[in-house]
Amino acid sequence: MIIVEESCVLLAVPAQIWPLLADFNRWKEWLFVQNAGETGVGNAMKVLGGEAGAQQLGIYYDKDPKELITQTGKVLVWNPPTHVAIALGDWNPETGRVVNGMRLPGAYGAWVGRMRALSLRLDVILEPVSVAETKMTVRFDGYFTDEFFGRFLNLFLPWGLGKTAKFFVKKFPLVLEASPR
User: Whole-model pTM?
Assistant: First the structure.
């Protein structure tokens, strides 16, 4: 498992932060994935079904007009207003066939699609630090699942997840500040 964690302090209490954090359809505003479209990886999330705390989620590339699901996930932890955890699994090898924006055909494309399968857990934890401030911790815990290339790809995963985590804690406060409370 590769674990990456970033934190920031928000000028709001957890109850003010939670409604925005719980709106998975808005996560594309602060969730950054390096080269998402060129590599067939998603950078946006939408609820596919389920009630609060048991949602099924779909990850897709936000510039794809068809919004093809690249990976599905589910909510694992739902403790309003302090903790949400999401697990991503079920990889779509068809969307993983994309390299530099082009779909690879045949067996080679299918192999490339499977090679990129990623198992990932994302936790967002809100902890009050004063009467008006909250520490937000974003933790990614994941690994590439391919038996052969996974070990190699996992060498680069801390870099990619690190960029995503840093962007999350940089961008989320700006979105929160611009949102009505």
Answer: 0.88
